[in-house]
Amino acid sequence: MTVIVKKYGGTSVSSISKIKKIANQIAVEKKEPNDILVVLSAMGDTTDKLVQMSNKSCKDPEPRELDMLLSSGEQVSISLLSLILNDIGVKATSLTGWQAGIKTNSQSMSARISSIDVKRIKSEFKKNSVVIVAGFQGINNKGDITTLGRGGSDTTAVALAAALKASECQIFTDVDGVYTTDPRICSNARKLDLLTYEEMLEMSGLGSKVLQLRSVEFASKHNVPIRVLNAHKGNNFGTLIKKEEKKMEGATISGIAFTKDEAEITIKGVKDQPGVAAKILGPIGDAKIEVDMIVQNVGSNGLADFTFTVSRNTLKNAMKVIEKNKKIMSYESVSSKNNIVKVSIVGVGMRSHAGIAGRMFKCLAKNKVNIRMISTSEIKISVVIDQKNLEIAVQALHNEFKLNKK
Ligand code: ADP
Ligand code: ASP
Ligand code: MG
């Protein structure tokens, strides 16, 4: 029998009436002899509310207890969908992550799936049940509940699709598919029909949260095609994300991603000599703070300025580490700026087209957008700019690379 895996995100299950609509769609599909596995997120902004409740309860939550709390939202949505399906005559069983056999490592709040034992799921399929699995959660080898990081239900769905050898993993959300850029910021954004894993990895990694980055990594590793679709529109093609094939002629630029959670740190007056980067970034790395872009300005009098970006929620901690290590790092002053953003253009076609970077920088200059930092890879170019220029930059680049709706 064909196995179909369908994941519905928070906005798609934010009310009983929306869950009922999904139940009706599943009931129609169940008329065909398919095994259907559904992965659900928590209803609406439940997970955000649970985080707020934890923040109100204590200053420094115990990670194990936070996993326990945050995983509770999905248990509500899966049982409701199961109740509704059973009520309309479709046999259904809801399963928590551990009941579905999802084992993870012990990294609270961002656990990685280590293995999946699909025995229980298959036995439910044998009873002709639709199986509904709680997204975003698993169990570690101590038997404790873990969670997979925000947006982690995407990863649950892709991992189950791989384990069950489903032909594709359908991710239902509140937009028609993956767009050239976030449709919430650019009304001209166009839905893409096809993307390669590589392009989607860059888009997700650079801020397009329509799919959790890990779900795309998992899909690419196990070669599971992902289709992103609108939860409340029937018969749409959505966006298919799959392995690059020779005949897939990539657009030069397929999309523009951005992140608003960047912060910049500048350390002035460091010694312009070998080993200085290691002296600064060593303690930062030891504090488990991830650094993204790095620039060192050529200095004068043997001194230089060292600038790098970190994610905004680690800025305070990074500044503490730098101040604590002033002697080792040996600098004159340190300052930070958090009203910056990173904008990136992505496309496999960039490999075979020269001059893309020049076009990007010229376009930004024409629109009076100052570039603070640049980084490139084979299929992306990222720039750090002031936050106030985000919309103008995204829209100008969207025009420049002819990504607008036709
Ligand atoms: P879900 O609750 O279904 O998991 P998410 O909020 O995680 O949904 O993802 C869908 C949202 O992703 C859209 O509403 C959209 O604003 C945002 N988004 C960001 N970048 C893109 C993009 N390139 N294409 C489509 N949606 C995007
Ligand atoms: N409910 C979790 C979150 O809001 C997981 C998910 O929706 O994918 O992050
Ligand atoms: Mg999501």
CATH architecture of the domain at 2-173: 3-Layer(aba) Sandwich
Please outline the major beta sheet: 8 strands, mixed
Small molecules (ligands, ions, cofactors) in the structure: adenosine-5'-diphosphate, aspartic acid, magnesium ion
Number of helices: 13
Terminal-residue CA separation: 40 Å
Low-confidence stretches: none
The rounded Rg comes to 23 Å
Q: What would you call the structural class?
A: alpha/beta
**Which CATH class of the domain at 2-173?**
Alpha Beta
- Average the pLDDT over all residues and give the rounded result: 94
Structure description:
By secondary structure, the protein is an alpha/beta fold. It has a domain at about 1-175: Acetylglutamate kinase-like (Carbamate kinase, 3-Layer(aba) Sandwich), CATH 3.40.1160. Helices cover about 35% and strands about 25% of the residues. The strands form 4 sheets. An 8-stranded mixed beta sheet has the order 3-6-2-1-9-11-12-10, sandwiched between helices. The protein has a 6-stranded antiparallel beta sheet with strand order 14-15-13-16-18-17. It has a two-stranded antiparallel ribbon with strand order 4-5. A hairpin with an 8-residue loop joins strand 11 (about 225-230) and strand 12 (about 240). Helix 6 runs parallel beside helix 8 and helix 7 (about 195-205) runs antiparallel to helix 8 (about 215-220). The longest helix has 16 residues, at about 70-85. It is globular. The two termini are about 40 Å apart. The model has no long low-confidence stretch (mean pLDDT about 95). The structure holds adenosine-5'-diphosphate (ADP), aspartic acid and magnesium ion. Magnesium ion (MG) binds near residues 9, 151 and 154.
